[in-house]
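Co-fold these.
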Amino acid sequence: MNKKPQLSRWLPLLWLILALTGLSLTLPSVAGAADVSATTLAERIRPVDAGGVRPELFAPEAQAGERIAMPAPRLKREDYPSIGVSSRSVVWVIAQMHLFFAAFVLAVPLFVLVIEWIGVRTGDPRYDDMARECMKISMTAYSITAIFGGTLAFALFLLYPQFMGYLFHVFDRQVLVYAFLFFAESAFLYIYYYSWQALRHGNRKWVHLTLGLMLNTVGTTLLLIANAWVTFMMAPSGVDASGVVTGSIWEIMKGPLWNPINLHRFIANVAFGGAVIGAYAAYKFLSSRDPKLRAHYDWMGYTANFIAILSFLPLPFAGYWLMAEIYAYSQQMGITAMGGILAWLFIVQAVLIGTILLAGNYYLWSGMSRTPGARRYYWLIKYIALVLVGSFLVWVTPHTLILSADEMKTLGGNSHKLLGPLGIMPAKNIAVNLMLIFTFLSFQLFRRSDKEVTVSWAGFGNALMVSIYVVAVVNVVFAGVYYGYFTNTVYKVGSSVIQVVSTLTVIVAGVVIDSLMFRGARKLPTTWGQVSNRAQYALFALPVAFTWLMALMGYVRSSVRTHWHVYTVMKDNSPDNYIPTIGHAGNMMTIVTVLFLLFVLFIFWVASLADKKQPKPAFLDGGAA
Amino acid sequence: MKKRFRQGGGVLLRVLLFSLLLTLVFTLTANLLPQVEGEAPVDREIDLAALTLDGFVALGETIFKGKGTCTLCHNDMGRAPDILAIDMVETAKEHLADPRYRGQATTVTEYLHESLVDPSVYVVRGYGKKGSNDTISPMPAVDKAPIQLNEVEMNAVIAFMEAKDGHEVSVPLPDSLPDDAPEPAGGEPAATATPVAAQSPEEALGKHGCTACHAIAGSEATLGPDLRSVGARLDAPAIRQSIVDPDAAIAEGYDAGLMPADIADKMTVSELEMIVDYLLRQRGGQ
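Predicted complex below.
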């Protein structure tokens, strides 16, 4: 039956084409699209006030007078409603909670669909069961997302009414598209989940997969729309210097930072979703004594960690692109983030990413105990650990310190003579790239541990792989040291490209070589469930660090606007228009992280309730009672 | 059943405790770092009736380091030329004579103004936007958002750039505020209480009481070291340091603590530079 061509198999592709066509038709046509290509990149990304894209070329609606020429409101302090507590703090907590859950519920269906599809391809029902279980957790999270979303909208209209009025004016009917898509998302989500068992086999399974694709298409579109609001606030386009709309909705959405944010958030969401699912599996693993269940949740935890770490590895590169675009848009904004008051936050970021990588690696090393084949690689672990810890320490070394006169005299300046050079970006670029390369090495060893290679060219393959590692490490260190310390600033930035390419080469080459070399490899026995309880805590460390990291980076992204609601267009004159201290911001991040954790544990508990069935009490059967 | 509940509850508590402890580590890290607040720029009211040239220069310095956000890039980190460390008047003359200059200015003042509102007319080599071959400056026009300096504020910055290296201030004092001047936002007036600066080094030395202790400018006082040949002994930075921080180095035979430590605080920028320049020329026998 499977060999026969089936129309239903093409349904997902058909839907994707229809969805994309539909989306492009719903958006207003981009007048003068050819003109856009005629302008240079520099012109398109130039700040709106600096004579960038000429509105008359792209704004047929504005010229036709269909929209009111409404400039951004110029607010005074007394224009902001006061409720007795900091408006920013209220919005901060609610928005962050909404974003955490939104990231989770948008990410889970993405990899669930892939897992479900793998289940169809392999015919292994475990994949299907695991995919459904992931969706079960997502269902409760979806309701919480909606609750926080509604509360956020209410809080924003209550506390920042003029700002919201302006944003609604700018985005106009696009807001209605968002609302419609939200309903569509709900519909697809419920149908996808509740039809799982009804559409489990044969042609029906392809219908179910199509539903999953629809769900993800709508979900990703929602993400892109919401991102446009955020990037408009950071780097407005489609409006003039006073905030009057001059472009079409497409020009307003497609600011210089939209695509970098889209990519960064998309990848980060998947990593975050994987980490939370990993924590669920760890929780179930620790709560269970049944070897079968432990084996299942061990496997589920491994898969979730795989998703989280694999998505996490390219994230620094997406972040690099985003920062490069921010610098290209406004050097001032870039320096505020990386070299100004917010720069210290990157020390905390280093601690968080270090935690994620150390926890991820530790979990992989612990997981190698599931198979005796892993013993071959045990000797390498201590060296990997050494590189990771050393790189981590370099990453957290600050460059300049705020010191008293006496301390500065003792130190001989505001940075240490020996440790100071480790505080600048070239050293950190070396550290982060080495951490990524060696994390991939852990991952590669883990993947190889339950296989024995059978191809004749195994020796050559291994030698090739080792040489790629050596060349990449030498490249990363040399480029960082030479260009970072012995050339000027322009080359310093350029050197990071060489480093990124080296790291990516290792990852791509590793995947390609292993997939060819281990084709038809002899499988060694693996005992799922045979992993230490301690390893499960690494799966909890990941979502905790991820959550805090998301809060941190979201805060940095938002704070680079400094005292502007919409950068260069609408000033923030509220009592909270300053950048708080790192300590205050850190405390806020902890509050939202702890709140999120409590909600997540609640979700785990609710999800486990669904599996429980109360045995019929004896007295109902006419027993002793 | 009870055992199972205890087991599940125990895991929940252990997980919660572990997560909270980890969160605590991150919180502590954030709280151990330097705690600095980034305040939004406060527009200051300028009282034109009380504005002196030194007040104008001081206003320029405040804008340069504050609202103008100039020091974000113009510092010793190599992102942009370190304006505080270079003589901008001399530098402006060099740039005006450079064939790469594409502006309309003919004087230093015009050049400095032009470089604020249209920074790309001359881009210092190595500081241009990536890929522009040093033809496009990454510096924003300071009269536009997000910086939005008005004409008076830009002139104050120019005055500061000229005065900081001892040059004559060429921009005139404003006689009226531009239409787009920011409305007072409750900030303290910046340029109203500045004392009138001395017009000559001799006047400055007398005004700040230097001649009461030192033999200089006609004085024969002996309480402090004789300064009539100080230019032969010390260079400009050392003289400047001995005024700004009198006890940093004590001349032989004299006690520390005699000279007021805050004397430099009471001087205007031009007075300090005037005195340093005057003392540097004192090489004995004059």
